[in-house]
């Protein structure tokens, strides 16, 4: 009986080994098959598009420009320029996803919401020449015609997060020699500075993301710190200060044809919902101040906005801030807060003092100077 059990155990063990080997082989074939299918889909879409693209590129430039204008055209259901400006930093995301689990169907899937710019500027689908010409058409036209289409207004401002400043200015996102900063020189700009990124919960997520981007931290590797984060933001501000001064040109306002040229507006928006007193955010405010004074010196119309739902404080500082007297500073916390007139809570007064100290420091005779 014991001998029989041993023989059964050996036979079961060998069968399990064979199952494992088969499973590993099957998994490898699934992965290989998925890779081949993905390559085939990309190749097919490229070839299908290039058949048309080749003909388009043989047309005169004027006709090609008309085609590109049609691709960027705003309608009630589609706004490709806005999609581009929202999701440009997701341009490296895959168009298709697949699952290597052999228990699931081996099909490539397109995400329900593809958070990335339109395919007609992706050189993988339309080639670099078509993609670059389409982007140049956007650069030449965006922000000029402000007439609404139906209930939708055309894009007039480009927004970005503070962590994206360096890529915005420096990165050849589309691989055709054009940065996003070059594309939007005829748009106003909004840079969102996130104070809450320094809080424990938010920064833990940033650390995870940085670890994922770098790969697993090996022996002797250092953890991404708040100092690293602030240093990266400083590099982003330095890149932002290198952008050339441009003016905003519009050919149509919301009513009709109206040619106008004005200074380009850059809004530095500070968002905060946590740690209003206990954590010192002077490091981020100093970066905002550096961007503020540097961009003003280049001729941009720079505004500073502070916004917090938690303490019900929303402020917008424009050029008239430099004309405020001491009495103005005492009363404008209440009068300039668009959440409504109140008494000025302790967190509100603290934030107000921080903004005054780091961005609009006062000297003698009620004049102000930036740090």
Can you walk through the features of this model?
Helix content is 47%, strand content 13%. The protein is an alpha/beta fold and 371 residues long. A hairpin with a 4-residue loop joins strand 6 (301-308) and strand 7. Residues 363-371 have low confidence and may be disordered.
Major beta sheet, specifics?
5 strands, mixed
Distance between the termini: 90 Å
Low-pLDDT residue spans: 363-371
Structural class: alpha/beta
Approximately how much beta-strand content do the residues carry?
Answer: 5-15%
Number of domains: 2
Number of strands: 9
The average pLDDT value, as a whole number, equals: 84
What general form does the structure show?
A: flat
Order of helices and strands: HHHHEHHEHHEEEHEEHHEE
Whole-angstrom Rg: 28 Å
Strand order within the widest beta sheet:
1-2-5-6-7
Number of helical regions: 11
Classify the helix fraction into a percent range. 40-55%
Keywords:
371 residues; 5-stranded mixed β-sheet; two-stranded antiparallel sheet; disordered C terminus
What's the helix and strand layout?
Layout: H1 2-56, H2 61-71, H3 80-87, H4 123-141, E1 157-161, H5 165-170, H6 180-183, E2 188-194, H7 200-214, H8 226-240, E3 247-252, E4 257-263, E5 265-271, H9 282-297, E6 301-308, E7 313-317, H10 326-335, H11 346-359, E8 361-362, E9 368-369
Parallel strand pairs: 1-2, 2-5, 5-6
Antiparallel strand pairs: 3-4, 6-7, 8-9
Helix pairs in contact: 1-4, 2-4, 8-9, 9-11
